[in-house]
Structures are given as structure tokens and as C-alpha cells.
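fwd from M.: "can u put these together and see what the complex looks like"

so here's what she sent:
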Amino acid sequence: MKRESDAQAGGPTLEDVARAAGVSRATVSRVINGIRNVDPAIQQTVRQAVAATGYAPNRAARSLVTRRAEIIALVVSGAGDASEAGQNAFASRVFADPFFGRVASGVIGYLRPRSMHPVLMFAETSAAREQVVNFLRQGSADGALIVSTHAEDPLPAMVAEAGLPAVLFARPAGRVPISYVDLAHQDGARLATEHLLARGCRRLVTIAGPQDVAAGHDRLTGFQDAMARHGYPYTPVAEADFTLRGGEEAMAALLAQEPDLDGVFAANDLMAQGACVVLRERGRRVPEDVAVVGFDDSSVAAAARPALTTVRQPVEDMAADMARLLQEHIERQDRAVTSVIFEPELVVRESA
Amino acid sequence: MKRESDAQAGGPTLEDVARAAGVSRATVSRVINGIRNVDPAIQQTVRQAVAATGYAPNRAARSLVTRRAEIIALVVSGAGDASEAGQNAFASRVFADPFFGRVASGVIGYLRPRSMHPVLMFAETSAAREQVVNFLRQGSADGALIVSTHAEDPLPAMVAEAGLPAVLFARPAGRVPISYVDLAHQDGARLATEHLLARGCRRLVTIAGPQDVAAGHDRLTGFQDAMARHGYPYTPVAEADFTLRGGEEAMAALLAQEPDLDGVFAANDLMAQGACVVLRERGRRVPEDVAVVGFDDSSVAAAARPALTTVRQPVEDMAADMARLLQEHIERQDRAVTSVIFEPELVVRESA
DNA sequence: TTGAAAGCGCTAACAG
DNA sequence: CTGTTAGCGCTTTCAA
């Protein structure tokens, strides 16, 4: 089959289609953009001409007049100012947790039917953050979806200050006027804790996440609150970094401190999995000797042995909602800043 | 601080900067694009005007004339034609393997210093594939980097047929005229096999990957060749799907078939990890009783217990090279189609 | 319901 | 070395 012209450069333009259909550019434009008030017969003719010429509208030209890129920036943002060499490390840390993939999936699920697309950006250094802001200021993207890995991340404030549309995953640390979606982490931790208590555990411990991350902090607080409420004013805590390895180390430390423990609440599934590995190494059966509850209900939870009882965080839904909020902010720049908080739910499997 | 105008819409234009600096648009454009032949003094003036006005070049306008979007599509492509409902499943499968994150990291590492950015796209249904092709045809992206999860993926052929610049990760199944980067999988499998043999294993088995994926097929072939060459014409094979769970099941099957096995070559790290889990459950020590070698040297390899001996696939480097090749194809549409094959290397850790 | 014409903001000849 | 000018391809009033 032969094409009228090359797709990439100098492909057919509206003008070409118009000529082929014997109408004006404006009419073709109307048909393509699905605007009413076009004679059905002419619509037919135009569509045929479009097919015949193999026309594809030039996005840059359209963006120039509509002032919309139909692109949004999906930013994974850290706080550090590490050297460029750290990019791979940053990326591999980010992708090691199934969390980010779920965010991407949720975002794409919302964006794609609306023919918008996400540009993937890392913002782990100040130079990278500048690049993100520039990208937006140039109109390369209509707005940003930001997932921070640290509370001190300066990007949200930069973006807000520049007046660029953006939505965060999780509440920002300071008083940044940006919409966000989040989970009721404390409620989730309470659910997990009470499940452990209800199943008869009396010597609980917890593997907390980084306390400089809101999610890590809130999950610990939620656990401690629930424990206090049930008559346990103090319980051993080991802080780790949300990684499998970190969970292993924390579990080992906890075991040394509290050899009789019979229940563990880990602030995410990866650490819960690490805990299970160490527990088994030390000859403790899960859940018979020690019950373990994770958090997130990531893909590793169901795949783990034993399958992890965990607290579900509906990341895909949250991400989709982030995208929805962003779209609203893009369409109405004066859209009020809001937050949407999702409720977690307990998912009981084998580990507790 | 107050801004001259809003960043998003109606921000300052070249014209504004030119007026502020008392020069012509062309001169400002030259300064911004770093073109020589501009009086240093004037350059200063212009830069100040840029700063004063808070100018950011409009990307759409630039793209319209340069015919470059400075955006490339990073496509994760499957073969299926599953319903829309399958998108999350597809995404979670993709991101469960650390592989994709490494690709993204390598791509970004190359692109970012050149101020180009990747748009993340899934192409798991025929509708999604059409969308990818349209995206490119509209000039929204200058080219595509395609990572297929199945050999029968029709996307490469579609893209090639449309004459769009693209580079694949891994050799395509048919005779598609597209450049690609790949690994010498057979050499890698040989490395692993000979390591196992050299350390004294005599009853080897292998957990193969999907045989409809080139990498899966070649790794098995490489293993069998090496075995045959060393006097083992036949060895038990269990095929799995590159997942942790799949590795576990395959290992169990292999154990039933060959209870005395003393060495396992798994076609990727995730399956090797699954094998280790099952082995330990059955009371076999790794590596004392059974040695295990994985493939990829993904992040799980180093994190596993015991740390996995594996074959390194330099995914980040390969991805960066993909991006480099794509850039060449974009710059010179007549660039000859080529392939770059990377050599794997053995990484000895604890499991073998 | 359709067409003519005016730009969107930028780059790139081409003069000077 | 700098300015003038002509578009890039599209959407969108404004008339007809």
C-alpha cells in the first residue's frame, strides 16, 4: 500500500483534506473536532477525504491555539540534592515498590480515555525540579501529578508558587496550597491493630516506616493510639525504610528486644514480607506463632507465602482521582484547592 | 513577589522580551537557542529582559516550526486484545518485575540531559495500539521506544509500516525492519550453566521462561546447548511465566520429577527467588544442597536471601542505547536499521 | 451551515 | 551582527 506522503514530516494538512473534499479548512476542522452544525452529507465527504489522504492533525499547531498540550507530568519527587549519579539508585528504589506502578496504572486508566498522556519525570535533584517547573511553564504539560518520597520535598511549593496546576499524592508537609488525595492512614493502622488484638495477640510490636514521611508517621500513630486505647500504653517499635531488607532488619531487632512477641504490624507489605522471612528463619510459624499484618495490599501481599493479611490502600483509584482533580484545576484555574481522603479496609488472608 | 503575568496562559512572549530588551524577536530567539553571532553586550541585555519578564518559550509554537516535540513515547506493549478491564492487571504484571523500572531509568538518564521526555504508554489492546500510532503520527512524540512482553506483538510492524521512528528492546519475532538492542541471552545461559557445572553440580534442572518470548526461548536454548556440550543431552525443564509464583510452582514440579537435583538455572531472578523459597520449604539448603542461578541481576537478586548468583543484563545501559539509537533515527530518517547486542556477565553471590 | 481571514508564538531564511 | 518577513497547521470569530 502506498501513502500519499510521509507521516512524520510534511504529512497531509487540513488544507490538503479540504481541497480533496472540496470544502474549506474550517469545515474540515469542525468535522474532525466533532462540532455540530455540519451537513451530514458533507461530513461523509470530509471523512472520506481524511481517510484517503491519511490525515492526522498536527498536535503542535492545535496546541498553539488551544493552549492545551493534552499532556500531564507524572512526577516522582524526592527531597535530596544528590549527584546525578544517584538517578539510577533513586529510580530503582522507586520502582522496587509496586506502589509506583499502581499509581501509573491508575493515572493512565483515567487519562487515556480522554486522550491525555503522562510524561514520566524524576525530580530527585534541584536541577531536576527546575526542569519540571520549566516543562510546565513552557506549556509542554498542562499540569503535574506529584508523588513525593519525602515530606521535605520542595517541589510542591515551587509549583504552587508558580501558579501551575498540580495535585499531590498525600498531604504536603507545610502549608502548601495544592489539592491532594490521601488515605486515612491512622484508621488503617487501627484496623490492623484491632484485628491482631481480636485474634488474641497480646505481645504486639510494630515495624514503622520512615517518620519523616507522613504515611510512615500516621501509621505509627494510628497503631499506638489503638494500642493505648486497648490498654497497652507502650509497645516496641522499630523504624525501617519501607524496603524488604529494612523489614528484615527491624524484625531481627524486635525479636531481640521482645522474644515472646506474637504479633507484628508492619507499615507496608514489603516490610511485612521481610518480617515473615526472618520469623521463619528463627523458627516462628506465621501465623500460628506470630501473626503479621502489612499495609497497602500491594501485589506482593497476595503473592507472599503465607499470603499477607493487610490494609488495602486503593492506590489505582486514588491515582485516578488525582488525575480527575488535576483536570478540574486545568480547566478552571480558579478551582478551589481540596483534598480527597480515602478510607482503607482490612484484607484478611493467611498471615493473621 | 509578583509576576508580570500568569505562567500558564498569556505569559510573556518573545515579542515582550524583545520590546523589554529593545531588540528584535529574532535576536532574542538566537540568544535563547544559544546561537552564536550575537553581541555579548546584547546577550546580557536580553538575558536580563528574560529574567525580568519571567519568559518561558512556548513549546507548541516552537514545535510547530521545528517539527520536533522533544517527546518520545515509551511503550510497554503486549500482544493480547483483552478488554479494557485488563489494564490494571497488565500494568501490575509489568511493574511487578523490576525490569521495567530499569528501562525507564535508563531512558530518562539519556533523555533528560538532552531535555527530551518520555510519555508512558501501555499498548495491551488493539485500540491502545492505534492510539500509540496516532500519537506518533500527530507529531505528539518524535518516535517510540517499545518494550514488548510478547513475541507476537503487532505494534512494531504497525509502527514500521507507518514509517515512524522506533527502537525495540529485544529482537522482534518477524522480519520487522526496526532497530533494536538486545542481550546475548544464549551466552548468558551458558555462563550460568558452566558456573553450575564447574562448582560440581551434576543433576541440573532449569526453570525456563515463556517460550513465546525470545528471551525465554534463547535462555533455554543456551542452557541446553551448554549442557549438551558437557555431555548432558537431556535435562528436566519446567516452563514458567517469569513471576515469583511461577518459579515456585515450577520448582515444586521439578523437585517431584528429579528429587536428587543439585542445581537450578532459572531464566530470571524472580523465578530463581521463587525456587529458593520452595527449596527451603522442602528442607534443601541453598547453595549447600542445591545451587541456584538466576538471570538479569535485577534489584531482587542482591536483596534476596541468599543473595542470588545471576547473569547480569545491563538493562539501564541497554535502555540508554535504545534512546540513543532512536535519536539517530529521528535526526536522520534514512538511518539504517541496526541492532546492538550486549554481552552478559556472571555475577557470583551466595546462591551458587 | 459554510467560508474567509486573523492570528497563536516561534524559527529561519534573507537582507542589510 | 541584527532586523524584517514569511510562514509552520490549526482554531475561531465574523460575515455571508
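replying to her w this: Confidence is low (pLDDT under 50) at residues 1-8 of chain A.
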